[in-house]
Design brief:
Blueprint (H helix, E strand, L loop, with lengths): L1 H24 L6 E6 L11 E6 L16 E9 L4 E9 L4 E5 H5 L13 E8 L13 E10 L9 E7 L1 E2 L4 H17 L16
Antiparallel strand pairs: 1-6, 1-9, 2-5, 2-7, 3-4, 3-6, 7-8
Length: 206
Amino acid sequence: MKKLGLALFVLTLALMLTGNALAQNVGDNSVYFVTYYSNANTAGAPDGVVRAINDGDQATTASEGVENGPLWAAFYIFDDSEELQSCCACLVTSDGLLSESVNKQLTNNEFTGRAEITRGVIKVVSSSKNDPTNPVAAPGLRVWGTHIQATTNIPEKGPFFVTETKAADANLGKVELSNLAISCSYGLTLGSGYGLCGCTPEDHDF
């Protein structure tokens, strides 16, 4: 019985170690994130911020000081009428941090040429290409966003409070990816310079 008990203990320990090894090797391959913005471009309200980090999923062995494994956060900004208003792809190097201002970067150069939208949806594709009109999904980004909450609308909005949440992982189908790319391409082409959102240099925060 003692030998059987020892054998079972060894087997259990081996399974636990194997399970831990497998768990460490299996990452979250999400490449698509969605969140919202609220009270943007609103008098008296603070600015919202979307932050993305590159977790190094795409990094490979390289000489010290040689950058490898970069990704681009392909942003697609919609208004509350479900219309795409701007798009861009911003570099996030391995282990790097990107911070994007909702007011100053993401909603200040809409296809309409006016920064008037106050709320809507932000979609982010983790891409291996720096082209929002032709993103190539690749895992490695993680995304958070701050939200500006107003306590009252009567007689005017305010005071405001800031919350922050992790952007929701979403399913990125071929149709959705194609729709985002085509809508961005058409918008940038027809917008005559409008609609391309700005990219903040890495490690510059708000």
